[in-house]
Every structure is written in C-alpha cells, then in structure tokens.
Amino acid sequence: MHTLLIYDISDDRIRNKVAETCKDYALRRIQWSAFLGKINHNKREELILKLGKLLGEKEGNIQLYPICSKDMKLHRELGRYANVRD
Q1: What pTM, to 2 d.p., does this model score?
Q2: What is the Cα–Cα distance from 71 to 7, expressed in whole angstroms?
Q3: What's the confidence (pLDDT) of residue 80?
C-alpha cells in the first residue's frame, strides 16, 4: 500500500532526521516536507514509531496516510518540480 507522509517541524536537526528516516524506508520526496512510497503495514507502523521517538515532545507535526491502489490511480499532478528530489 502506498503511504503519504507529511510533516511540519521547525527544528532543522529533527526535520533532517525525519527526512533521512523516510528515505531509509524507501519513501521518495515529492515536496520539501512530503514523502510518498509503497511500504507494508508493519513497516508503516515501525516508521511511525521511529518518527514519534525522533519528534518526542518537540514542537511539530507528522501525518501519515495509507493510500490504496484504487485511490492512487486517481492521483493527478500539475506543475513542475522545483529542486526537491534527491
């Protein structure tokens, strides 16, 4: 199942660690603070636990959305990417 993960974290160190953790789970950056990828339920739960530990009690917000294949087929995209892919 696809997973969309978005976050808003002001602390640069934590935000960078969140991004690196997303990459560790084979999620690809689609916006500066948004990652998308296909991971299974167990990995998704593991990821959210790791990110919860990273964020701790610090200010910030992380949201993770499972997206089924049927809904992914409805995905539409407009515009061009700025240099956000790495």
Answers
A1: 0.87
A2: 21
A3: 76
